[in-house]
Write a structure and sequence with these properties.
The chain is an alpha/beta fold and about 325 residues long.
């Protein structure tokens, strides 16, 4: 069994590697889907001695299998939005307190205590469906903020605009978190000159608008909201941790999370720093599901510990290995 208290107390790379190897051993023994995947690749628990030897499970498995390392009762199931004709991912969570500790501690690490903010959320595409891990997190941050004007604004852009302008003019620290297309909708109707607001986009046009490259999106949002930087949140249904960017699309992870970059042609090989490849994530908060995930995102890692997301694979399969047979 893994002592989850140690996960959120990591202070060094040595700590991270030790706990990650312990988590791998635990998940290999207790997660039947992950163990079958490792065995298919010819990897046994006894052969893994360092992080580079740990197999990364494609997140596609969350659409077709129950990915669990715990026999405790499932407390909630987070689901992805999916697209027409595709399956949604399902993340079975047996300890919701781990998720709550992960996002609360991570936000405090990068932005200080949430109680210092008014949280205004513009997340219509997420709020309109069940099972969103983002909505769960933001709803809890709204409650923890304690500000009477904190809340979700589904379609009432006029009221949101009024509240945002009034609070910002009063010098209130604000976190405006929204999905990209809704933030664009807002600045098409209203113009701002915000001085005390963090504008944070969570990505995704969700079929509502033409896809924009990050630089174009952020420039439009900077001009519309009158801010110097656009912040970003990077997370997904299959994770219990987030990475944040305070501008320019350069993300940082909390100490219990790491990003590695794999070769797009050979998913078992690694790309050097600064070279584009597939994003692999170690999320130790995922101790009761799977902490070692190969995403469908493309990006690159930088020597200073930052990483950036450049897009997505054109297809869901990872070339070079028949990974979905188990």
């Amino acid at each position: 069994m893994v002592d989850t208290r140690k996960i959120f107390g990591i202070t060094s790379q040595a700590d991270f590697e030790t706990i990650a190897l312990n988590v791998f051993q635990y998940q290999y023994q207790n997660n039947t889907v992950y163990r079958a995947f490792c065995n298919h690749l010819g990897v046994k628990a006894t052969s893994v001695r360092q992080l580079s030897e740990i197999p990364f499970l494609p997140i596609e498995f969350f659409k077709k299998k129950t990915v669990l390392s715990s026999k405790d009762p499932v407390q909630t199931v987070f689901t992805s939005s999916g697209t027409t004709g595709t399956r949604s991912s399902k993340h079975y969570v047996t300890d919701i307190a781990l998720y709550e500790q992960s996002y609360t501690q991570c936000f405090h690490l990068f932005y200080e205590d949430i109680s210092g903010y008014c949280v205004l959320a513009l997340l219509p595409s997420y709020l309109e469906r069940e099972g969103s891990s983002l909505i769960y997190m933001v709803d809890d941050l709204i409650q923890k903020s304690g500000h009477p004007k904190s809340g979700f604004y589904l379609n009432d852009l006029e009221q949101l605009s009024k509240t945002l302008s009034e609070l910002d003019n009063q010098g209130t620290p604000i976190l405006l978190i929204g999905v990209s297309f809704a933030l664009l909708d807002m600045i098409e109707k209203f113009q701002f000159h915000l001085q005390h607001t963090i504008v944070m986009e969570t990505g995704g046009m969700k079929g509502r608008r033409r896809e924009l490259i990050r630089e174009e999106l952020h420039q439009l949002l900077k001009d519309g909201f009158g801010v110097k930087k656009i912040h970003s949140e990077y997370g997904m249904t299959e994770l219990l941790s987030q990475a944040y960017s305070n501008g320019d699309g350069m993300f940082r992870t909390p100490p219990w999370m790491r990003v590695l970059v794999r070769d797009t042609e050979d998913p078992l090989s690694w790309q050097p720093t600064g070279k584009t490849g597939g994003i692999n994530i170690i999320d130790l908060a995922n101790v009761h599901s799977c902490s070692f995930l190969a995403t469908q995102d493309l990006g690159k890692a930088h020597a200073d510990g930052y990483f950036e997301i450049l897009g997505r694979f054109d297809h869901s399969d990872i070339r070079g290995c028949n990974l979905m047979v188990v």
